[in-house]
Design brief:
Blueprint: H1 8-47, H2 50-59, H3 68-86, H4 90-113, H5 118-121, H6 124-133, H7 135-162, H8 170-190, H9 194-202, H10 210-230, H11 233-255, H12 267-279, H13 284-296
Helix pairs in contact: 1-4, 1-10, 3-4, 3-7, 3-8, 7-8, 7-13, 8-11, 10-11
Amino acid sequence: MQQSRLTPQFASSCTSGNRNTLSTMVSSATMHVVDVLSALTSLALICSPAVATQRIWRRRSVGVASIVPLATLLGNSHMWMLYGWMIRNWFPVFWVFLFGDAVSLLYLAVYWRYTPERRHAVSLLYLAVYWRYTPERRHAVKILGVTLAVLLVATLYAILGVSGHTGQTRHQVGSTVGVLCDVVAVCLYGAPMEKIFHVLKYRSAVFINVHMVVASLANNVMWFTYGVLTDNWYIISPNILFITLNSSTLILYLVFNPKTHPLPADFNQSTAAEGSRRSVEPSPKAVLSRKAEIHSTSPAFDALQSPV
């Protein structure tokens, strides 16, 4: 009987095939791990305002909590949900941020319910007077109005694009939505950055929620890794910026640690005095700016940048 023999070429091809299969298995396993970790870090950030929202519900008052981070959560979640739908990335992008979309609406509903003089906001009879003299609601309406308008335009564009009314392919519409995601994310990320200026002004990092910064940084790193593995520059690009900014924020926290750099003893008095001076000005813009300043330093919420 003739003994079968493997030629060197055949043996080499078998070895190469085994290596390629092993490499594919390792890459697939790595991708699954990154998918799950990206989803988990995003879900953690999406759920992070729940504690403050529960506090608002229990106290029946928003206190000094800002609406801006909640609008940020809604904007980011909705845009990335649209993007996941357009490119058919159901997990982790679409389903995670569909959940974020729904939860952020719940947060905003609670905030809206317990903002002062809520009944006037839904009364056409008092709306003109309320709009003129209530900067708190005026601030909330302005933030929500801009956010919802942008999201409405983006949603209509995506629906019309998929329906073929824009003359673009689904891939082209998805690319445009990806660009819009980056633009919205960068704009919304800048909204709460005023607290960084407060840190530099008062030389104290008491304004920084370091736990949220660390969580956001971890989330940004995971989405950056996800973007690299999937070669998706719509996810890579903004996360480079956010990783840099979050790292800088952590450095500021270490330099101006609240334990070694507390706020001055007269901080509350000086803030109250400044507020009193502003309150007697006839222009409502001055009052609005004061309220915006109060909102910006709120420790109750922090901005969410997920996946950007």
